[in-house]
Design brief:
single chain, about 450 residues, alpha/beta, Rossmann fold, Alpha-Beta Plaits, 22 strands
Length: about 450
Amino acid sequence: MKVIVCGAGQVGFNIAKHLADQQNDVTVIDRSPELIRKISESLDVQAIVGHASDPSMLDRAGAGDSDLLIAVTMSDEVNMVACQVAHSLFSVPTKIARIRNQTYLKPNWADLFSRDNLPIDVIISPELEVAQALQRRLQVPGAFNMVPFVDGRVRMVGLTLDENCPVLDTPLRQLTELFPNLQTVVAAVVRKNRIFVPKADDQLQNGDTIYIAVETSTTERTLAVFGHEEKAAQRIVIVGGGNIGLFLAQQLERSGSATNIKIIELDTRRAAAIAEKLKTTVVINGDALDREILLEANVAQADTVVSVADDDEVNILSSLLAKQQGCPRAITLMNNPIYGGLVGSLGIDVALDPRETTVSSIVRHIRRGRIRDLYSIFEGKAEIIEAEVLEGSEVAGRTVGALRLHGDAKFGMVVRGDEAIVPHSDTMLLSGDRVVILALSDAVKRIEQLFSAKADLF
């Protein structure tokens, strides 16, 4: 597939890396010579210095025979114009744009991005995506990540194991014997920075990071098996009243999942503006690094602090101060990947990298075959895939074991009608089944091929 990525910032870089790793033909355009030099030295892509919406630049990048344009520059307007030019002059089939300004996305202007006006096929709103990712983490206390699949009937849950996990040093094949009604599959393990798909004789160890597939209704009981019995947060303090903080508070108010929500916002005018948009959330104007403000927010009695200011250092320090005052759990937004490796040693429970969320949102729209949903994890080293079994595909009528995935992928759950099935090697895949699979990056193309009908391949 031939792809043009407009914008070489963090999201553009990671999208280009992800697509190049999957052997796609990728060209990146950006105004910054420094960013283009960095991407040229790091990735196997073509990189061009120039304006992403300039027709001559898009022509030079090969827009005439490109399959996809992804516009993720820092300017919404440049992203929109790039999509318009790609459509009008080069007939690029699929156009994806990042739009930050929520005014463009209001329901009143729903026709703006139609094919007759501004032809954008997929719009990504990073702040909204991140707020939704944060809410998912709040829904499953104890998890560092939770991604729903199959219309919310299956969850992939990320957990870190400690010495309280009762199934440490137990072969995975014995989990079914110990817990016969346990509807879960351990799909991936990260140990000492290495990710692998575990086999039946593998054992979990203290400090492992794992992803498990679980039927949604059994989430709480399943987490207890792995040593996590935390209660859902009712009292939440949000640090930062930007779009992410505002969207998160609005979502929590709508869901009714939290009884007490507070936002700490430094800017006086912004604090007043968001207070008008919220119904029950208390907005406190002040510095989250000021102990008096934290006392006013009653952080010591909060269940969780969620730090989403636009400064990584403020997020990290406010999270640590809140924990120091007695808040048991901290979820922290970190834009700079350098800080990611420090999370455990700092005492922060969950670090959210907004790039991972945005990259997943974009990549899920460019898969072949019957791939219905997708989520990228561990900096693109693995992907969680939801696929549909189609009559005429390679998987239809075959057992899981017969597919011989050689330890690079694992079936997490099969949903057939109203039934969620924990797959085994002799489980037959039938037309209409929806399956959730965790695949290491090298196996993703194979999964796409397996779930493609014959016509999809040509």
